[in-house]
């Protein structure tokens, strides 16, 4: 999928994060669901962000 921002095209990057089930229940719009937690919360993918093409960390 090709996206554009201010006339510049770019490809979206998907961050796949492995998750595990937890016992934490949450409710949203009247529907109850169980929260999933990241398998490895210290993954470097989680801390790396980009803004206008420039990467920065936490």
SS-based structural class? Answer: mainly beta
Order of strands, main sheet, comes to 1-2
Poorly predicted runs of 5 or more residues = none
Query: What's the domain count?
Result: 1
Which range does the strand content fall in?
A: over 45%
Count of helical segments? 1
Overall body shape: elongated
Total E-strand runs: 6
CA-atom Rg in angstroms: 16 Å
Distance N to C terminus: 29 Å
Main beta-sheet strand count, sense and barrel state: 2 strands, antiparallel
Mean pLDDT, nearest integer?
A: 80
| Percent helix range | under 10%
Listing every helix as H and every strand as E from the N terminus to the C terminus, the arrangement reads: EEEEHEE
Characterise this structure.
The strands form 3 sheets. The protein has a two-stranded antiparallel ribbon with strand order 1-2. Strands 3-4 form a two-stranded antiparallel ribbon. It is built from 1 helix and 6 strands, in the order ββββαββ. It is elongated and about 45 Å long. Helix content is 7%, strand content 52%. With 58 residues, the chain is mainly beta. It has one domain (3-56). It has one helix at residues 44-47; strands spanning 3-5, 8-10, 19-28, 31-38, 49-51, 54-56.
